[in-house]
Amino acid sequence: MLTYSGIILLLVFSGISLVTGKRLVCYYSNWAQYRVGLGRFTTDNVDPYLCTHVIYAYAKLNGNQLAPIELNDEMYYQRMINLKSRNPNLKVLLAVGGWGVGSKAFTKVSSQTSNRIEFTHNAIQYLRKHNFDGLDFHWMYPTSKGSPAGDKYDFAELIARLISQLLLIFYINDRNLDFITMMTYDFHGAWEKNTGHNSPLFQRLNEKPPQSYSNVNWAARYWTSKGIPPSKLNIGIPTFGRGFTLASRMIYGPSAPAIGPSPGGIYTREPGYLAYYEVCKLIQKGGHVYRMNDAQVPYVVIGNQWVGYDDIKSVINKANYVQIGGYGGVGVWTLALDDFSGSCGSGKYPLISAIKNAFRN
């Protein structure tokens, strides 16, 4: 099935010109500051020349106002904005919402005209106060997770009000918007009973619908078939892998039976979810890397653990796919999950750097 992370939009103040060339949009996750050791990530780790846009995730909704989540968020806001003194072309945006927030607060904001007016005014004031270039509205999801059916219409009204004052960059079907980023990952994960890759570029040769829809190429073609110009589309690229525990060590290919998630990584600590720098440690410990030649992505097997992830070769393939297809760029989740410290031996930010270099070439 076509997968994207809900209704996500980016709003950039009118008068802000977009960086020319391919877009390289990167998320900064504020909770990565609490990881231990080599996993700890703050604004001090952000390379201001790496991405065209950096999005600070997340703020929350407090009534009809934006508000910080962490006590030190506003300090880190300023530190992130200060990176623009080193690279004036960098765009820094603030994201509100995320998976853990749900729909209740968004439903309230969008449900009445007075709330929409107040939120629009307050949001613009908040962004200007902290010198952000715009807002990433990350509602997961309208009409889901407790959100009533009418939310999609109320949300459209909220968008209409916001678009009247901001240049809109939206993650859903609207040919009048500036660009669309597809969340082309989380196609498969440990919520399923068989192994599957997090973000395959193409379908596997033996796949039939609807399984054959769960890949980057199908998603991109779906959007263009609806009339979206390829230049408006960003392809989502993950710097994390999705892992499974195999039912049998003797059956370890794609679609192998699985009994649950792989153990959490030593730094990310979420079962079935590993940063790229954690995956490379599995390889260094003796994990065997296999390539899905049809899907053009790798997976690693060590013992009864199976992890589908992206490596340098696969992200270069995706960057080349973007260029050949005339797509507008990529969206990366996240900076903190790439090997930002260079512990894997391929330099700092090997995945994002590979994408950037592929665009240069």
TrEMBL record:
GO terms for molecular function: chitin binding; chitinase activity. It comes from the Eukaryota. It holds the Pfam family Glyco_hydro_18. Residues 22-361 form the GH18 domain. Transmembrane segments: none annotated. Keywords: Disulfide bond, Signal. One of its GO terms (cellular component) is extracellular region. The keyword Signal applies. Residues 1-21 form the signal peptide. Gene3D superfamilies: 3.10.50.10, Glycosidases. PROSITE patterns: GH18_2 (PS51910). One of its GO terms (biological process) is chitin catabolic process. PANTHER family: CHITINASE, CHITINASE 12-RELATED. This is GH18 domain-containing protein.
